[in-house]
Amino acid sequence: xxxxxxxxxxxxxxxxxxxxxxxxxxxxxxxxxxxxxxxxxxxxxxxxxxxxxxxxxxxxxxxxxxxxxxxxxxxxxxxxxxxxxxxxxxxxxxxxxxxxxxxxxxxxxxxxxxxxxx
Length: 118
Fold this sequence. Notes:
Blueprint: E1 4-7, E2 10-13, E3 18-24, E4 30-38, E5 45-51, E6 56-58, E7 66-71, E8 76-81, E9 90-100, E10 103-108, E11 112-117
Parallel strand pairs: 2-11
Antiparallel strand pairs: 1-3, 3-8, 4-5, 4-9, 5-6, 7-8, 9-10, 9-11
């Protein structure tokens, strides 16, 4: 069982920055960590992901503005969000994909609200 706790959401003006952090109870077997977001009336979408080998991928609309990073020593993953836009407003969720003996399971945090005002 992996527990994820997010922090760092809030209200910011357009053009501002926020840093989201996700603390995992363990990184044992964790292959990929990711940040998803869900805006009202929209489907949840993958914003950024980072694999154990540090390779990353990003949603096209956030490339060049957001950076995902992980600290294996602290069991944390962060999402640095710069040049925020109102369309980035959403609940952001941390996710972890654990692979142990071929068994895959995905875990989710409780979500943190990010609101970007004009």
